Amino acid sequence: MSQFWCDYAWLGGDTATADVLIDVVDGRIAAVTAGTSQPPVATHLAGLTLPGLSNAHSHAFHRALRGRTQAVTGSFWTWRDQMYALAQSLTPDTYFDLARAVFGEMLLAGVTCVGEFHYLHHGEGGARYTDPNAMGVAVVAAAKAAGIRITLLDTCYLHGGIGIAPNEVQMRFSDGSAEAWAERASSLAPDDGARVGAAIHSVRAVDPASMSVVADWAAHRSAPLHAHVSEQHAENEQCRIAHGCTPTEVLSDAGAVNHRFTAVHATHLSDRDIALLGGSRSTICMCPTTERDLADGIGPTTRLRAAGTHISLGSDSHAVIDLFEEARAVELNERLSSNIRGSHTAATLLEAATLHGHRSLGWPDAGVIRTDAVADFVSVRLDSVRTAGAAAGSLLETAVFAASAADVHHVVVAGEVRVRDGAHVSFDVAAELGRTLRTVWEGA
Predict the structure, then answer these.
(1) Is the pLDDT of residue 314 over 90?
(2) Which CATH code of 3.90.190.20, 2.10.220.10, 2.30.30.60, 2.30.40.10 fits the domain covering 2-51+373-422?
């Protein structure tokens, strides 16, 4: 057994609890005791301890674009061209190195579980590797090497647009048919630290009949199913022309929308879309730093939550990796849109960053600090220039609306310390990012 003693811990509800002892056995929380003194053998977790954060939507290789796409005027579509050029250059070996460094950055930010929306499957021009899952295997191996939990959301991507054949780069994403996608994805095996889910890239990339194949695959395995939904006005317009309805309606008709479904972005929705997503108890994954970076727009989070959806969070293209920034941006964007403060409380935003994100990725026993849950938690400093002077009664508000990833000092995954005093215990993340990004761009 190992023990961790917290100055304050968030055990649920609207406030933090003082002097909390967490007992861990075999990677799970064996007991949580509040109002106790620190045992001599316990690891002291200063500041505020939260359940591990869940990054529910990641494209790890997009991290290489950070700072390189800001120099010219453009849109999501011009950014996508730059992303395609990057995707063309990666191999299983370079992707392993890059993903390991990116997952290390996530751990430094307090992320203990990542949902990797993985569509970079094949070699140049669509050539299959000897192992058809070589790229996915590399990503999972990178997560294990970094020490982070992962749900590999193996993504079906068949078309270059509605009714359009994939271009040369998109051939790396495509299996040719949903049946071929299912055959390949079925050979991926989950284990203790890695789970496998499914994803439909978008209505642009997957036709309705193929969506049903993916939805059936996920349903047969009770696996999570994610999809990009209504990220752009142009996507909605193209969908209405081709199918006579919205992307959400297409996905619903294909059998994809249910309690295991997560709609990523969900930015431009109709009233009918919101009712479908809420009525099915779907999850919405908001990625505010990417949505504003790509000029996508502001999603209707208050209406979605009122309709019955759960909100989760993702860093998507990794313009930054900071789940505190993602969380507060949900509320601050809503303030800009509605002129009303306080539509989302600090507690509900923390639930989005922890509990709901984990559940959307198929980890129902994570994202909480309670007996029998997995022993993943993160501690945030309360003495930095951002958090100093925090009051005991408003620590959640301090974490969500003032703290940043830089304030994370300890991260525990399955009872093992992965980040200590703000540094990864196994490797220099910044140095690895610098090295791998140089290698990636030299090959691009």
Answers:
(1) yes
(2) 2.30.40.10
Residues near 4 by beta carbon (within 8 Å), at least 6 away in sequence: 21, 22, 24, 42, 43, 45, 49, 377, 412
pLDDT at 44: 98
Q: What's the token pair of residue 212? A: 């049903």
- pLDDT score at 76: 81
Residue 262 dihedral angles phi and psi, to the nearest 5°: -125, 120
State the Cα–Cα distance between residues 285 and 72, nearest whole angstrom. 28
Residue pair 409/46 in contact by the 8 Å Cβ criterion: yes
pLDDT in tens, 415-441: 999 999 999 999 999 999 999 999 998
How would you classify the pairing of strands 408-413 and 416-420?
antiparallel
What pLDDT is recorded for position 191? 85
| Residues ≥6 apart with Cβ < 8 Å to 399 | 48, 50, 324, 346, 350, 380, 387
Per-residue pLDDT band for 71 (boundaries 50, 70, 90) equals confident
| DSSP codes joined into one string, 7-60 | EEE--SSSS-EEEEEEEEETTEEEEEEES-PPPTTSEEEEEEEEEPEEEEEE-G
Q: Where are the domains of the chain?
A: 2-51+373-422, 60-360
Task: Please check whether residue 111 is in contact with residue 54, taking contact to mean a CB–CB distance below 8 angstroms.
Answer: yes
Q: What angle do CA 417, 418, 421 make, to 5 degrees?
A: 80
CA distances from 390 to 7, 51, 312, 322, 382 (A): 13, 20, 26, 20, 7
What local confidence, expressed as pLDDT, does residue 82 receive?
86
Q: For residues 369-380, give the mean pLDDT.
A: 98
pLDDT in tens, 37-70: 999 999 999 999 999 999 999 999 999 999 888 8
Q: Given the structure tokens 């909480």, which residue do they identify?
A: 368
CATH architecture for segment(s) 60-360:
Alpha-Beta Barrel (3.20)
List phi, psi (to 5°) of 134.
-55, -40
Amino acid at 312: S
Query: In angstroms, rounded to a whole number, what is the distance separating the alpha carbons of residues 377 and 418?
Result: 10
Indicate which residues carry an active-site annotation: 265, 316
Which amino acid would we find at residue 427? F
pLDDT on residue 443: 79
d(CA 185, CA 197): 9
Q: Each residue of 178-208: pLDDT tens digit?
A: 999 999 999 998 888 999 999 999 999 999 9
Q: Show the DSSP H helices in 117-207 as ranges.
A: 134-146, 178-185
Burial class (CB in 10 A: 0-12, 13-18, 19+), 2: middle
